[in-house]
């Protein structure tokens, strides 16, 4: 390798991984990778990716998708703000779903804010509105010099 | 006395760009432009104000990459050349525009560049960082910093990796400025739950959050964003004021869009003939900004000539306008909220002078005008906090100041591919830290460089650029380079063959943070740093200690005591009597005292009380003989009375570990005995200075049951020593000949063994001939035997009684799977022991077991009370050896890193130190 610096990144790392991330209030992103053994294991089975939300201490099915497992990622849209979710990748057998991998749970922001300033001990309460005060349209936010607007 | 405050916070950051391989490099221009157009003009303005006697307060965040670049010899030399070229260009422009309307502007630029040349070289000696430090010493500038490479924390997966960004950033700052800052700038104001704890660990007092980060907090702050709130970890969060942002930032109505201000896009770099301009361009290959622009914004028509005088008048008018609105805003707020309101106005520093040419002048006018009135005063978050500590606590969730308000800018189809690599690298770095808590020579250099590469790859600038599409090739290349270099280095570390020339080449190119400490990625990092101080003298009080082994407690104390001795601590264990065991013993450096047995009539609690009396007596005797202790570490309620009496009587700090609670064991308190035990546990945790729990699950249980504040409870996992299991290294997986499923532990209902028995007939379908071996004893054995008989499984279910040592290890060797289907499990050390013995594990998804096992990664977790689901996973393990091997391999790695007793003892020792105060 002397003198020549490495530049290639592998397509994957050959280990079971399933990660769920929050993109914004109503959208979650999941990516996964499977080991050789896991791929062999799932080859003959009906596989699916499930998103589950936490309700009363248990994770309940929210939505099921069957992506081409080669792609390795998925955007879940229209998730419910304020809830906790986890993703499961597994197989169906006789109507039952068995997760092979589970992601860590994530909390989706509520997206609901109270706009009015009320002061402590004052009677009037601010109204809850379901819009976020989004970032103001900018001339050049962050990494300023590296962006031409 | 001001009615309210304005906190202007400027955040200065550039990604680390340094390319020694080429004399002139396009992207290095970002730094040179920023120095010329932003940092020098700002320092110029701020210094001038100080010289004129103005006392003002502004907060400035300097990112570690920027600090590093501003003090880099190569980049400083190149900057001087850059300025010289600019001066040449301005002189050429003077010649070219002589006699035209552009001439005065060319003169303006020539004078400006020459002035900055003087300032940079002769006034500041090429060191702008010291110029900022000087302003700080004058008391007009509060300096803070941000993450090491401006990593966007919410999308960094692991706590340890987030901490590494924060701690490394703070260390760089301290290295250059000689102190740690009070505040911290979160990159992109990106906040997610738990980040406040990391900041608190580092002594940070405040951070700035996006507007809706505060407004959506729970409960919503009564002062909106106009008073800081405290997060649960005790760090103050200030919220961005949207009004001040809009007035300055907004594309349509913000000040920078004013028609008299300098137009950004009409730069001569794009407009003049190639042959003329080419010598002055950074790379000589493509056209870029030079910084010489002749037009004003003008509006929709054709651009008109820039008139500096008029622009300056506009800046003054805008400063007046801005202040007018702040006065009104503050007066309005002061009537409605209790504390004096603070309007927090954070901006990218590069806005001032680069995007908005007149920005520094606007700031100067503003400071002058604020000085001339008394309604609004300038302040810094630190100063404000000192006079007005937060009155409310709120829990904040995800937020950022990026477009959309969350993480969309850094996570979208243009850049989502990077996270698979970044997260994998995070996990690997953390694991390597735990495998190599100490290292030297080439290994140390490789680990340090790997940490650098990971930090550089995590720069939020790269996904940002990929999203906005400006210099995509460059950003992609940087990502690929850092990730591949990280993989290259860590592959070789894991193979134990670091290539020295390869390492050197990478070190030369990515030389940021020379003093980096890679161990900041360790799960066991503490703010006190490495164990430098004297080891403590520890008294361990425990009723259970080998040869008395009932559950995991005895083994835990045994392993802990040895590991503490390994650190150099003096350890004394005082424990219950055991027939035929010596009353005084030196067990590999651990001094064990078994108290004498009292004969009496009475129940178990009486016996416990008697044992505690004896313990107090024994320790009293030791103290009289001249023995000294720095700390008492009590394990579970059984030693509560002795622990409290000793702590109080002799003034010793008490640390208590709660391994399990009576409430948890019995699923509630149902009788007098259980109640008395519960009270003993309560007394113990309330009198201890610090409580240790083995899992987050237990921490929550203890906090909830006894009302202990979470900050008082430290989670330290149990460790496991593979050698005790007869294992030294990865054996190589070989599926055992017979499908034997092993259970090890007490035979009590909460361990769920009944579900394993019920699962056997279902497993039989997948794995014919499956047998269950149950190693342990307990009051539930009779019931389990009956169940086994009722299901006709007596030939398949084997009760071995209690096993330990080599016999236990042999059972592990013969097992095809280890199953622990618990209903209640504070930790589940047997699961770790199975991983250490390289047996695939299936556990109940409960309590501490849930935290120890990652489903599909190093074991399987099934819902308690579901023999059908248990059967399914056990069956799959038994019939899929490759899958089983995968799980074992990862389990083995986990045991070697996360659950290594050396680390756990070190963290425990650190906890003792904290308790000693």
Keywords:
heterodimer, A: 149 residues, mainly beta, Immunoglobulin-like, 5-stranded antiparallel β-sheet, 3-stranded antiparallel β-sheet, 1 helix, flat, B: 917 residues, alpha/beta, Rossmann fold, 4 domains, 9-stranded mixed β-sheet, 8-stranded mixed β-sheet, 47% helix, elongated
In CATH terms, what is the fold-level topology of the domain at 17-107 in chain A?
Answer: Immunoglobulin-like
CATH architecture of the domain at 17-107 in chain A: Sandwich
Question: Strand content of the residues of chain B, in percent?
Answer: 5-15%
Oligomer: heterodimer
Distance between the termini of chain B: 40 Å
Helix and strand content put the structural class of chain B at alpha/beta
Largest sheet of chain A: 5 strands, antiparallel
Using the coordinates above, name the CATH class of the domain at 17-107 in chain A. Answer: Mainly Beta
Describe it for me?
- The complex is a heterodimer of chains A (149) and B (917).
- By secondary structure, chain A is mainly β.
- Chain A has a domain at 17-107: Immunoglobulin-like.
- Helix content of chain A is 5%, strand content 40%.
- Chain A is built from 1 helix and 10 strands, in the order E-E-H-E-E-E-E-E-E-E-E.
- In chain A, strands 3, 4, 6, 7 and 8 form a 5-stranded antiparallel sheet that branches. Chain A has a 3-stranded antiparallel sheet with strand order 1-2-5, with no helix packed on it.
- In chain A, strand 1 and strand 2 (27-33) form a beta hairpin.
- Chain A is flat and about 60 Å long.
- Chain A starts with 16 loop residues before the first strand and ends in a 20-residue tail after the last strand.
- The model of chain A is unreliable at 122-149 (pLDDT under 50).
- Chain B is built from 33 helices and 23 strands.
- Chain B is 47% helix and 12% strand.
- In chain B, the strands form 3 sheets. In chain B, strands 1, 2, 3, 4, 5, 6, 7, 8 and 9 form a 9-stranded mixed sheet that branches.
- Chain B is elongated and about 110 Å long.
- Chain B is an alpha/beta fold.
- The mean pLDDT of chain B is 93.
- Chains A and B meet through strand 1, strand 2, helix 1, strand 7 and strand 9 of A and helix 1, helix 8, helix 9, helix 15 and helix 17 of B.
């Amino acid at each position: 390798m002397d003198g020549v610096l490495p530049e290639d990144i592998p397509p994957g790392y050959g280990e079971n991984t399933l990660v769920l991330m929050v993109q914004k209030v109503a959208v979650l992103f999941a990516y996964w990778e499977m080991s050789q053994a896991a791929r062999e294991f799932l080859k003959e089975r009906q596989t699916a990716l499930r998103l589950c939300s936490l309700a009363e201490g248990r994770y309940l099915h929210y939505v099921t998708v069957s992506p081409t497992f080669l792609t390795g990622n998925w955007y879940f849209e229209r998730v419910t703000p304020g809830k906790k979710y986890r993703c499961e990748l597994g197989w169906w057998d006789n109507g039952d779903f068995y997760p092979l991998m589970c992601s860590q749970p994530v909390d989706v922001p509520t997206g609901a804010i109270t706009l009015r300033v009320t002061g402590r001990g004052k009677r009037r309460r601010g109204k809850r509105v379901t819009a976020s005060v989004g970032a103001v349209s900018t001339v050049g936010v962050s990494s300023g010099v590296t962006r031409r607007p | 006395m001001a009615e309210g405050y304005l906190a202007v916070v400027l955040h200065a950051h550039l990604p680390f760009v340094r390319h020694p391989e080429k004399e002139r490099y396009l992207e290095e221009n970002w730094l040179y432009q920023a120095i010329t157009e932003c940092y020098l003009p700002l320092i110029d303005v701020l210094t001038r104000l100080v010289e004129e006697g103005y006392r003002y307060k502004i907060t400035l965040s300097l990112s570690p990459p920027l600090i590093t670049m501003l003090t880099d010899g190569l980049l400083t030399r190149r900057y001087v050349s850059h300025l010289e070229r600019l001066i040449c260009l301005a002189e050429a422009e003077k010649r070219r525009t002589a006699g035209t309307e552009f001439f005065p502007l060319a003169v303006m630029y020539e004078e400006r560049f020459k002035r900055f040349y003087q300032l940079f070289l002769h006034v500041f000696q090429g060191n702008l960082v010291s110029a900022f430090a000087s302003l700080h010493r004058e008391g007009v500038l509060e300096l803070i910093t941000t993450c090491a490479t401006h990593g966007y924390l919410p999308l960094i997966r692991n706590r340890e990796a987030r901490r590494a960004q924060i701690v490394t950033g703070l260390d760089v700052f301290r290295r250059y400025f000689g102190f740690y800052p009070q505040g911290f700038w979160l990159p992109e104001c990106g906040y997610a739950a738990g980040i406040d704890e990391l900041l608190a660990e580092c002594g940070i007092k405040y951070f700035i959050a996006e507007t809706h980060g505060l407004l959506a907090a729970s409960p919503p702050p009564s002062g909106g964003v106009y008073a800081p709130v405290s997060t649960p970890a005790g760090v103050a969060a200030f919220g961005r004021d949207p009004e001040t942002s809009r007035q300055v930032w907004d594309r349509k109505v913000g000040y920078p869009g004013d028609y008299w201000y300098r137009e950004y896009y009409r730069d001569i770099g794009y407009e003049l003939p190639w042959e003329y301009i080419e010598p002055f361009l950074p790379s000589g290959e493509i056209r870029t900004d030079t910084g010489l622009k002749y037009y004003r914004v003008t509006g929709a028509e054709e651009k008109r000539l820039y008139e500096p005088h008029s622009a300056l008048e506009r800046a003054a008018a805008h400063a007046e306008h801005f202040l007018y609105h702040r006065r009104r805003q503050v007066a309005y707020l002061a009537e409605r909220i209790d504390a004096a309101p603070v309007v927090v106005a954070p901006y990218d520093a590069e806005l001032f002078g680069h995007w908005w040419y007149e920005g520094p002048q606007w700031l100067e006018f503003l400071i002058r005008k604020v000085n001339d009135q008394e309604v609004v005063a300038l302040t810094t978050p630190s100063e404000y906090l000192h006079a007005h500590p937060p009155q409310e606590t709120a829990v904040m969730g995800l937020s950022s100041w990026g477009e959309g308000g969350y993480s969309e800018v850094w996570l979208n189809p243009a850049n989502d591919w990077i996270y698979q690599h970044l997260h994998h690298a995070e996990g690997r770095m953390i694991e390597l830290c735990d495998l190599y808590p100490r290292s030297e020579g080439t290994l140390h250099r490789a680990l340090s460089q790997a940490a650098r590469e990971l930090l550089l790859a995590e720069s939020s600038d790269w996904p940002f650029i990929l999203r906005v599409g400006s210099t995509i090739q460059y950003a992609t290349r940087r990502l690929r380079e850092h990730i591949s270099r990280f993989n290259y280095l860590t592959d070789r570390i894991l193979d134990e063959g670091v290539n020295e020339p390869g390492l050197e080449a990478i070190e030369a190119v990515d030389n940021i943070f020379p003093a980096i400490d890679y161990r900041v990625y360790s799960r066991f990092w503490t703010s006190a740093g490495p164990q430098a101080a004297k080891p403590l003298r520890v008294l361990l009080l425990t009723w259970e200690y080998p040869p008395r082994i009932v559950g995991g407690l005895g083994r835990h104390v045994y392993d802990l005591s040895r590991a503490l001795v390994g650190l150099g601590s003096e350890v004394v264990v005082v424990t219950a009597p055991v027939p035929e065991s010596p009353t005084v013993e030196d067990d590999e450096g651990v001094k064990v005292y078994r108290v004498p047995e009292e004969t009496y009539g009475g129940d178990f609690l009486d016996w416990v009380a008697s044992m505690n009396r004896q313990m107090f007596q024994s320790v009293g005797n030791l103290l009289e003989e001249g023995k000294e202790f720095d700390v008492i570490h009590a394990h579970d309620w059984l030693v509560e009375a002795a622990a409290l009496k000793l702590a109080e009587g002799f003034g010793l700090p008490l640390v208590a570990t709660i391994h399990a609670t009576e409430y948890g064991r019995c699923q509630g308190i149902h009788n007098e005995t259980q109640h008395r035990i519960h009270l003993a546990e309560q007394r113990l945790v309330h009198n201890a200075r610090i409580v240790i729990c083995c899992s987050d699950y237990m921490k929550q249980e203890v906090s909830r049951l006894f009302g202990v504040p979470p900050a008082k409870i430290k989670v330290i996992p149990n460790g496991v020593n593979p050698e005790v299991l007869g294992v030294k290294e990865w054996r190589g997986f070989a599926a055992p000949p017979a499908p034997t499923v092993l259970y090890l532990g007490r035979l009590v209902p909460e361990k769920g063994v009944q579900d394993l028995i019920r699962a056997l007939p279902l497993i039989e379908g997948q794995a014919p001939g499956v047998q269950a071996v149950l190693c342990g004893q307990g009051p539930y054995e009779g019931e389990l035997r009956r169940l086994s008989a009722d299901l006709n499984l007596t030939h398949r279910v084997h009760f071995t009684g209690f096993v330990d040592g080599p016999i236990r290890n042999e059972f592990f060797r013969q097992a095809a799977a280890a199953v622990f289907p618990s209903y209640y499990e504070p930790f589940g050390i047997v699961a770790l022991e199975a991983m250490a013995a390289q047996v695939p594990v299936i556990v109940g998804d409960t309590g501490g077991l849930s935290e120890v096992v990652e489903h599909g990664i190093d074991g399987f977790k099934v819902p308690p009370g579901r023999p059908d689901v248990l059967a399914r996973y056990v069956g799959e393990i038994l019939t899929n050896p490759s899958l089983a091997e995968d799980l074992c391999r990862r389990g083995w790695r986990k045991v070697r890193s996360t659950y290594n007793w050396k680390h756990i003892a070190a963290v425990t020792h650190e906890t003792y130190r904290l308790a000693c105060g």
